[in-house]
Amino acid sequence: MKNALIASAALLALSPLAAKAQEKTLTISVYAFAQDDFKTIVYDPFEQKCSCKIVVETGNSVERLAKMEANKANPAIDMAVVSMADALSATRKDLIDKVDTSKLSNFGKLYDLAKDPNGDGMSVGYTFYATSIAYRSDKMKVESWADLLKPEYVGHVAFPNVTTNQGPPALYMLGQALGNDSPDLKAAIVALGEKKDEIVTFYEKSSQLVQLMQQEEIWAAPIGRFSWAGFTKLDVPVAWATPKEGQTGGMNVMVVTKGSKNRDLALQFMDFWLSTEIQTKLAEKLVDSPANKDVKLSEEAANNLSYGEETAKSLKLIPSAAALDNRAAWLKEWNEKVGQ
Q: Which residues form the signal peptide (predicted)?
């Protein structure tokens, strides 16, 4: 009987069910977009490489950070991708740990701005985007962010609402052009408020801008580079501005959950995602602009993404602390001066 039990135990240990039970599982929290591409390019190949299972949780930033906070005592996820500002928010709430970059073989390949975006060692950038001005090159000349408010142009401008991702960065650069780069963005909001009746629209969705430009209702609008492809298909001349104050934009980063039981696996996954091969494949699919400086892209992909060392060096990103500490004040000032 004893021998039979031992034999049964041995058979069970070799069974697919037992193997399944022993399989490592990595739970990640990510944005919902392009998940089919991420599955094909990132998740499935990593599962094969690590002999593990990836569980993917998606949602917007507010939902995902709230879930991390609710499960702080017993983390439900191992790593997450969030914005720079959300990473700092997670740090302040003690939800994430320092990233051990010594275990990231691809760390040295990253552009400098992606290596430690918040300057605290708690995150690593994996993609960034530029924000500048798309404009009708046959109608106007854009050398400065302040050109948007010139009398001859302002009546043909769309500007992002402060509640959008592009609103604060565009205001930040407008403020710099006006000689005031204070994180309260007051100078830029006041200047916009004075012109609010002339500006065509304070947009909330960039998708509406292509049609407005095609119909010549607008000549210019600050946009993220990820929206640029639609403008290149217009049958009117549209250019991407390189203002003298520089470009702004945003960055998404990777973080490791504090208390994760799969920290090493999470770091392996992050390193895989940051590799030249994976970053190239994601970029060629126009999913993400690469943070890996060794990535070489086709002309088509490069034209539709935020790409290259020159672009990376030109970006003036709003410091995360400034974004977190001033959001409520931005909205209050906007509602008072612009009223939309």
A: 1-21
Asked if residue 20 has pLDDT above 80, the reply is no
CA neighbor of 116 nearest in space, from 146, 143, 138, 91: 91
Q: What is the CATH number that goes with domain 129-248+320-338? A: 3.40.190.10
Q: What is the pLDDT of residue 23?
A: 76
Stretch 224-234: mean pLDDT: 90
Q: Average per-residue pLDDT in the chain?
A: 92
User: Which contiguous run of DSSP H or E holds residue 252?
Assistant: strand 248-257
Query: Distance between CA atoms of 183 and 217, rounded to whole angstroms?
Result: 32
- DSSP code at position 33: T
Residue 290: Cβ-neighbour burial (10 angstroms; 0-12, 13-18, 19+)? buried
As annotated, the residues of the chain forming the CATH 3.40.190.10 domain(s) are 25-128+250-313, 129-248+320-338
Say whether 182 sits in a helix, a strand or coil.
coil
**Is the pLDDT reported for residue 7 higher than 90?**
no
CA angle, 266 then 271 then 273, to 5°: 95
* pLDDT above 90 for 226: no
